[in-house]
Amino acid sequence: MRRTPTAAIHLCIILALLAVPALLASSPVRAQEATPSAAPVTVVASGLTNPRGFAWGPNGTLAMAMAGSGGETRIPVSGGFTLRIGLSSSVVTVADGCTAPLQVGLVSTHWEETRWIWGAMDVAYLGDELYVLLGGAGASWRSPSSFSGVYKVNMNRTMNLVADLSTWLPANRPSFIAPDFNPDGSLYGLVATGDALLVTEAVGGQLIRVTPAGEISRVADLSEGHPVPSGVAVD
């Protein structure tokens, strides 16, 4: 009987599979060196509500942004876009396993369908001054009396708006507008560099420079290809 090509292929596969154990049995096997145990991890704070970015101050203080949990105000904006808004976001310091509030009652916006939450997104020290990046605020986030942007934290625990990105972003749109683009931005990262601060606007794909005097400029338009930059590292 003539063997078909398919049958021959099947036979070759079976023979190859049968040969594998023999090859393994005849091959010397070296013991893998044990991986060195990692250094123990110490929990320095727990029970945090959606912690975001943190930064060390010049005196060793650890400041942290917490986006919060949204709130009781529920707003169905459109299909698949329901917001829960409140004032549960905050900025805290962390020491000895405990947190101490620097700023409380900041806007927190929870997009129900995606479970994404915006509020205080990051912090950065520029010299001795602490700055906070606040997202999820502004008219498009249904918080018209608040503004997404960069704020300066004062010694008396008040905050001043340094860079109003809720106003700047709609007037300075990127070259590519993503389907989920928000006029008030999708702010994520804040880092100090030289005499200014850099902000990442993720969905719009923008890297933005902010000075302590409130000057705002775009450093890079990364919107093409929709890479969603959420952070920046300064060399």
From TrEMBL:
Keyword Signal in record: yes
InterPro entries in the cross-refs: ScyD/ScyE-like (IPR048031)
Signal peptide segment: 1-31
Keyword Oxidoreductase in annotation: no
Keywords: Signal
Any coiled-coil regions, as ranges: none
Protein name: Glucose/Sorbosone dehydrogenase domain-containing protein
Native organism taxonomy: Bacteria, Pseudomonadati, Thermomicrobiota, Thermomicrobia, Thermomicrobiales
